[in-house]
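Tokens as discussed.
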């Protein structure tokens, strides 16, 4: 089977599952985010290991999986971890590194890479839960709409970059990291993101969530999400180029790895949460 049919078949299977989990929220959404976080963390640590690093992968993957679970528990009021408890993660990692790596096993790099992987994967993906249960959300339709906004903008941002890059691309944006990306593509991505944000704010958010964005909010959210998506994509490309691999893994047929699918979302979900919280307005 060629790559395109594989990609299409996987998309047909996965998209309804993801939409259903976001709509259902609660345990279904937490399970999806925990699974994605754990797999993304595993891929991230594998990329680091290719370059000779020795992260504390088991600890990092476990914490990445637990972050969405803790966020859910906090939402339910079952347990609200104070900052002091969260801060204990660093002493925990140092303790594990002391016994598992010692002074000759690169303990500083192990702790740094492990901590970065936890925040980069589980920490960032958990913002999907925060959007689903945003303070402005009143039901499942509204929660789905808010989660979909950065997801759809990210997808069409990539489309705008591709089309503009093919039509007008000459000057390379960052050839040492991603040789195919151009400045024209970057500008096209921004335009596509702003237009997509406008369409969603005008025709999707009002009926589904009773929310909208004023003109300045549309521009700020659209530009912010576009820049976040592009930096997120470039960041993962940087990791893969350093590791000398094309894909983060081969877990998803035709699509590469989990990180390859969520690299931009790891940036747009938290940025979207912050910007939407600042610019959303109620629309009866």
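Sequence:
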């Amino acid at each position: 089977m060629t790559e395109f049919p594989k990609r299409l078949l996987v998309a047909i299977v996965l998209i309804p599952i993801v939409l259903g989990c976001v709509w259902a929220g609660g345990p279904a959404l937490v399970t999806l985010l925990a699974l994605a976080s754990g797999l993304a963390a595993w891929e991230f640590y594998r990329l680091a290991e290719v370059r000779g690093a020795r992260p504390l992968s088991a600890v990092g993957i476990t914490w990445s999986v637990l972050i969405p679970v803790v966020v859910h528990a906090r939402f339910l009021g079952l347990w609200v971890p104070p900052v002091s408890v969260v801060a204990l993660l660093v002493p925990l990692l140092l303790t594990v590194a002391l016994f598992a790596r010692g002074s000759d096993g690169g303990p500083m790099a192990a702790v740094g890479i492990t901590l970065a992987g936890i925040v980069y994967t589980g920490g960032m993906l958990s913002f999907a839960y925060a959007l689903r249960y945003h303070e402005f959300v009143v039901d499942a339709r509204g929660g789905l709409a808010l989660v979909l906004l950065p997801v759809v903008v990210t997808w069409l941002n990539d489309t705008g970059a591709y089309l503009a890059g093919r039509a007008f691309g000459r000057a390379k944006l960052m050839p040492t990291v991603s040789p195919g990306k151009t400045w024209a593509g970057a500008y096209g991505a921004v335009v596509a993101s702003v237009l997509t944000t406008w369409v969603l704010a005008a025709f999707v958010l009002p009926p589904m969530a009773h929310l909208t964005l004023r003109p300045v909010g549309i521009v700020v959210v659209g530009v912010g999400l576009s820049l976040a998506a592009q930096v997120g994509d470039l960041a993962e490309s940087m990791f893969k180029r350093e590791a000398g691999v094309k894909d983060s893994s081969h877990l998803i047929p035709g699509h590469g790895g989990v990180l390859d699918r969520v690299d931009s979302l790891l940036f747009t979900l938290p940025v979207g949460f912050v910007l939407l919280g600042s610019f959303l307005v109620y629309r009866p």
